Amino acid sequence: MARIDHFRDRRFPILAIGxxxxxxxxxxLISVASERAIRDQMAREAGAxxxxxxxxxxxxxxxxxxxDAQDYVDAVQVNPNVLAAAIYxxxxxxxxxxxxxxxxxxxxxxxxxxxxxxxxxxxxxxxPVEQAGQxxxxxxxxxxxxxxxxxxxxxxxxxxxxxxxxLAVVILAVAQTALMRANxxxxxxxxxxxxxxxxxxxxxxxxxxxxKMEAIGRLTGGIAHDFNNLLMVASSGIELLEHxxxxxxxxxxxxxxxxxxxRGAALTSQLLAFSRQAPMKSAVLDLRGQVEGLRFMxxxxxxxxxxxxxxxxEDLWPVEADAGxxxxxxxxxxxxxxxxxxxxxxxxxxxxxxxxxAGAPGGQDAVRLEIADTGVGIPEATLxxxxxxxxxxxxxxxxTGLGLSQVYGFARSSGGHxxxxxxxxxxxxxxxxxxxTHKALAEAPAPAPAPAxxxxxxxxxxxxxxxxxxxxxxxxxxxxxxxLERLGFEHVRTETAPAxxxxxxxxxxxxxxxxxxxxxxGMDGLTLARTLRxxxxxxxxLLTTGYSAAAAAAGSEFPLLLKPYRLEDLDQALxxxxxxxxx
Length: 583
Ligand SMILES: Nc1ncnc2c1ncn2[C@@H]1O[C@H](COP(=O)(O)OP(=O)(O)OP(=O)(O)O)[C@@H](O)[C@H]1O
Ligand SMILES: [Mg+2]
Hints:
The chain is α/β, with parallel strands linked by helices and 583 residues long. Among the domains are: 2-146, 2-Layer Sandwich (Beta-Lactamase); 285-356 and 364-435, Histidine kinase-like ATPase, C-terminal domain (Heat Shock Protein 90, 2-Layer Sandwich), CATH 3.30.565; 465-582, 3-Layer(aba) Sandwich (Rossmann fold). It is 52% helix and 19% strand. The strands form 4 sheets. A 5-stranded antiparallel beta sheet has the order 2-1-5-4-3. Strands 7-9-10-12-11 form a 5-stranded mixed beta sheet, with helices on one face. Helix 12 links the parallel strand 16 and strand 17 (560-562). Helix 1 (2-62) runs antiparallel to helix 3 and helix 6 (323-340) runs antiparallel to helix 8. Adenosine-5'-triphosphate binds at residues 332, 336-337, 340, 373, 375-378, 386, 391-394, 399-405, 428.
């Protein structure tokens, strides 16, 4: 666009000058041609008049009758263009003549009998006087060429047309220049606008992220409490396990500990997923699945004295929205509900399909989400203001007033809308309506293959294999070592990657390597794995980590097991590794 404008910018003045030049040349050619035509016409007329005079005076010359010749010459005066006239005899002596005031008798330097001469704005015509084939003398006329005024008048119209043409070209050129300048200004403004939109999008992105962080901040109390509970269950369970002898009781205690650990893992993974910095991206969502996945976080954002009820229709239509924004909106609503129910109550999430009313033009199927609490409610006077950014009734430091404006923004950017109804003392209901989408749900990731049936314990008679275990945490190393032994492996542990390398140099007879990723010692697990692969290409290596960033760094280069993992998971990972090697 800018390139074309630039090209036009330079092309137009050249065109305008070219056009003016053509106009000038055309005008010149026209005037030269018409000038020539007029002169030819004048010469013809003057020639005819001189011929007439010559034939009229032939008798008078033949008889030497000067008076008669003078009469004929005088008669020519009636033509105002004739300035002077003369008759000469054969010896070129003047016989008769007339000249207007200030004019000379027409003479020719060299006696000629037939001539038409334009000279200094005058036309001189010479014609022979003859009778019966005998040359008697010459008749000469001098006429005015066109007077300058007459000539000017003749060309005035042409000059006018040329001037108008030139004026039109000049006006066009000026207008075009102005238009181009305006265009350039417009393009600059459009660019500035684009830049501004870009900046605003960045600011919105940052705001969304900070809103999420704020929501998490508000959850920390609940989460810390939750973790303490989980740790409590786990530590007391382990303690009790040490003393229990009854197998049934030991199994129950073990289950309790495992469940606590699983809940802790779920909690951290949800927190990490929620806080991840992902750009807004709408996708086809199954609301039931989404909210089910968020249940744990919702429970954390409410208090123990608030019951959470989720009532979603089985056959909910899919909608199109950003999953992260949906989660944040529901969390904001849950936190608001918690604050509105200081004495406890019920927080209910309901979702139903809403068919477009038959025959209604532009009607659209939708899914309606209702988020209800049994809290203090919102007074009539402030009900219309709750979606306003920064509107809050909470104390400084307790609320920014951005929660509901995020909910509003989420509903609008998903093509839907949000409404609220409330009565003081009777609770509040928010309604989010999202249009149904006919796009297909994205394929859910395939579930991990189920662990092999039966106990993961290996047949003790199976070939014992050696594992190099690299793990800096003693507790983890002990428990993983225990698991490996149960799975029929022998293991040697090192605490750091350099130590593992040294060990491998001295004794490379290992069947596989299980290594942590983030470790002290100046070398991480990924670098260790790459170095080992260079030395022994066929050596199977399994990496393990509890850090999502480390997991992302490993990509798909090496098989990866996320901490915390269970015996079954380790068994499955080692089997897959062994199959990979066998393949
Ligand atoms: N469920 C509810 N019951 C009663 N009042 C509510 C409820 N939800 C919101 N409000 C009122 O609307 C106001 C605005 O809510 P919003 O979520 O936008 O901001 P906030 O909760 O005050 O602050 P933030 O969410 O940014 O921490 C609240 O201050 C509160 O007065
Ligand atoms: Mg809020």
